[in-house]
Design brief:
By secondary structure, the protein is α+β, with helices and mostly antiparallel strands. The chain has a single domain, classed as Oxidoreductase, molybdopterin-binding domain (Sulfite Oxidase, Chain A, domain 2). The protein contains 9 helices and 12 strands. The longest helix is centred in the N-terminal third of the chain and has 14 residues. The chain is globular. The structure holds ligand MTE and molybdenum atom. The site of molybdenum atom has 6 residues, from loops.
């Protein structure tokens, strides 16, 4: 398939061309005052991050095509402002929220996370975002709720992949409530100190670092609190290959390939594969969530 490629204004016009020197100095000073450096999170990995270029040009986002470079080429036209998020189900404060209202007051942190795709490649990504737990506390989760479900925007006019039945649209994902409340679970709004690029899920996407990347649903427009395990896109597509839990697990292979090792994007031709870690290396924080569960049956 071929999609239209459109340059964005920011691609063709250096911002500085529109500002005189005094404005630049004032803007720089304001930026310093308005945004103190984000503290290094105790949840961040020490691994060296992938480059911005790598993170923004090697993507999975089937709404914009199935090739790794399709999202960076085709997502530029997606309009992410204004952005509404519907909150419904077993929650005290349901509603149709403007994104800014929904997330106001929630502390944004930088988190450098390992990221492992189910296709057995990985990256290190410096996200900015807030803990999903903070948002859920603000919304008031009712005692009957056991899961959180998420939906991506459905807008075929700006998401050309949705004109084809590659997947069942809109893209859906979900977490058990205790997974959603875990401090590692992030709602990302930025990347490398910049607003989230469209191809990475602007304006808001989920990041769950101990799970395969497909759990990280992009361009979220709906959050539902429910007492039933929600249907999820890849599980609906092929339930024998993609489970609801999708925990990174080197001992449970995908039916068509091994999950024991991974290829680090950008590591170079001769770097070799590296061992995949249980829960992607986040076992200390999350293994207790699955105590007593058979992770072969619940993959
Ligand atoms: N809406 C939507 N979200 C999605 C996908 C998608 O196709 N559509 N792909 C998933 C998969 S398989 C991965 S690996 C990650 C990729 O995130 P990244 O492009 O920011 O690395 O997004 C996930 N979220
Ligand atoms: Mo993925």
């Amino acid at each position: 398939m071929t999609f239209k490629t459109t340059l964005r204004w920011s691609d063709v016009t250096p911002h500085s061309a529109y500002l005189n020197r005094r404005q630049i100095m004032a803007a720089a000073a304001a930026a310093v005052v308005a945004r103190p450096a984000l503290a290094k999170s105790k949840y961040s990995t020490d691994d060296a991050p992938n480059t911005y270029e790598q993170i923004t040009t090697y993507n999975n986002y089937y709404e914009f095509g199935v090739g790794k470079e399709d999202p960076s080429a085709n997502a530029g036209d997606l309009k992410t402002s204004p952005w509404k998020v519907k909150v419904d189900g077993m929650v005290d404060k349901p509603g149709d929220y403007d994104l800014g209202d929904l997330i106001s007051g929630l502390p944004i942190e930088e988190r450098i996370y390992r990221f492992r795709c189910v296709e057995a490649w990985s990256m290190i990504i410096p996200w900015q975002g807030f803990q999903l737990s903070g948002l859920l506390d603000k919304l008031g989760v009712q005692p009957s709720a056991k899961y959180v479900a998420f939906e991506t925007l459905l807008r075929p006019s700006e998401m050309p992949g949705q004109k084809q039945s590659i997947l069942e649209w809109p893209y859906r994902e979900g977490l058990r409530l205790d997974e959603a409340m875990n401090p590692l679970t992030l709602m990302a709004t930025g990347l490398y100190d910049k607003p989230l690029p469209n191809q990475n899920g602007a304006p808001i996407r989920l990041v769950v670092p101990w799970k395969y990347g497909f759990k990280g649903v992009k361009a979220i427009v709906r959050i539902t609190l429910t007492d039933k395990m929600p249907p999820t896109t890849w599980n609906m597509m092929a339930s024998n290959e993609y489970g609801f839990y999708a925990n990174v697990n080197p001992d449970v292979d995908h039916p068509r390939w091994s999950q024991a090792s991974e290829r680090r994007i950008g590591a170079g031709l001769f770097a070799g594969r590296q061992d995949t870690l249980m829960f992607n290396g986040y076992g200390d924080e999350v293994a207790s969530l699955y105590a007593g569960m058979d992770l072969r049956a619940n993959f």
